[in-house]
C-alpha cells in the first residue's frame, strides 16, 4: 500500500512579471489587449521618441566635433614633436600639445558615453514582453503619460507564464523525512495527483520538485512544490486538493478505520477468535489511508476484527455476529487484509 498524504494546495506560475516603463514618456502606440497571448520580445507599447531622437542627433554632432578637435590636437602634437627634434620647439610646447590631445580624447569619450545613454533611453521607448505568457488587464492606453518613478499599482500590464505551472502545498513537519526521501527517490515516489473538482477525477499529475529550507515555526508545517506535467485545465491562483505519494508501506495488515480503538494503553482492536470469543489486542498503527488503518504490529492478515459494537465488549467476551441494521447493537466483524509493497 502506498504511503500517501493529502493537503490543500494552490496553483502557481513559474514566472509572473509586471511590465513598467523605464523612462518617462507618452504612449503613442499600444499593441496588446486584455488576456492576449504574447511571446518574449513582442512589442507591447511604444512611447513618443521625438525628443530622444533630437538628443541623439545633437549627441552625434557633438561627438563629430570632439573627434575633429582630437584629430587636430594629434596633428599639432606630431608637428611639435618634429620641431622639438630639430630644437625649434621647446619641451614645454611639446608637453602642452600632448595635454591638448589628452583633453580632446577625454571629450570624445564623454560624448560617446552620453550618446550611448541616449541610445539606451531610445530603446526603452519600445516596451517589449520580457517573457512568454498571458497578459492580464492592460492599464496603459494611447495618450497616457507614464513615469518610471511610479512603482505603485499594477504597472502597464502583468504577464503570467501559463506553461510549466506548479502546485504549492504544506505538510506537517513530521512528514519531512518522507518528503526528503521522496524528493531524492525515483519511480512513483514523489508523485502528486491534483484534484480540482468534486468528481474525484485527477485533473493533473505532478512531480515533487521543491521542499522549503525551513519549517514554518508558527504552524509547524513545511512548504513543498510540485511541477505539473499537463496543466490545460488549471489556472494560476486556483485552489486544489493534492495527494502526494511518499513511498510504500512494508508488509502489514489493513483493517477498516472504525475497527481501530484507543484506550488507556494505546491503540487496540478486538480480534475474533474461534468460537466467537474476542481478544482485546494492542496494535501499532502505521498509517491511515481514507477509510483504512494500516497495522504494522499486533495483527496478522486474515484475522477477523470487530468493526461495530466495540463499546459493549471486553477481553474474552462472546459475540454473535449479525447483519447490519440501522439500530443493530450486536457486534459486526471484518477480515484484516494483507498489505504488501
How is the secondary structure organized here?
Layout: E1 2-12, E2 16-19, E3 25-30, E4 37-38, E5 43-47, H1 50-85, H2 91-123, E6 126-128, E7 133-135, E8 145-146, E9 157-160, E10 166-172, H3 176-184, E11 191-195, E12 204-211, E13 221-228, E14 239-248, E15 252-256, E16 261-263, E17 266-272, E18 278-282, E19 284-289, E20 292-297, E21 304-308, E22 332-335, E23 337-339
Antiparallel strand pairs: 1-10, 1-14, 2-9, 3-5, 3-8, 4-7, 5-6, 7-9, 10-13, 11-12, 11-14, 12-13, 15-20, 15-23, 16-17, 17-18, 17-21, 19-20, 21-22
Domain Multidrug resistance protein MdtA-like barrel-sandwich hybrid: 16-153
GO molecular function, one term: efflux transmembrane transporter activity
Main location: membrane
Structural key phrases:
341 residues, alpha+beta, Elongation Factor Tu (Ef-tu), domain 3, Helix Hairpins, conserved putative lor/sdh protein from methanococcus maripaludis s2 fold, 6-stranded antiparallel barrel, 5-stranded antiparallel sheet, 3 helices, MdtA-like_BSH, RND_pump_MFP, transport, efflux transmembrane transporter activity, MdtA-like_C
